Amino acid sequence: MKLVMAVIKPFKLDEVREALTPLGVQGLTVTEVKGFGRQKGQTEIYRGAEYHVSFLPKLKIEVAVPSDLVDAVVEAIASTARTGKIGDGKIFVLDVERALRIRTGETDASAL
């Protein structure tokens, strides 16, 4: 099993979710986060005053999937979250040692 963690622009969430559903992804976790990468934030104007926003709003998506689905899930996220502009985000793939569904006690792949 793998955990696919993606940090994307907030307005891309619905497209990413719609792209993952046909692949068999049954659930995902979304967290509102703030951060910066190479763009180092941005400058905005508010009531005529210019100020620097260091941390930009992003969404972190976490999806636990069987190992054989990882490439398809990563490609689906990458292709739908891509705008071609700086700040599109990142995708990380981590190993999951164990999973447990609390309600039923199912473990590993059956717990997903």
TrEMBL record:
SUPFAM superfamilies for the chain: GlnB-like (SSF54913)
SMART domains for this protein: P-II (SM00938)
A Pfam family matched in the record: P-II
Sequence intervals crossing the membrane: none
O-UMP-tyrosine PTM sites in chain numbering: Y51
Domain of life: Bacteria
GO biological process, one term: regulation of nitrogen utilization
Protein family membership: Belongs to the P(II) protein family.
Protein name per UniProt: Nitrogen regulatory protein P-II
Source species of the chain: Pseudoroseomonas cervicalis ATCC 49957
The encoding gene: glnB2
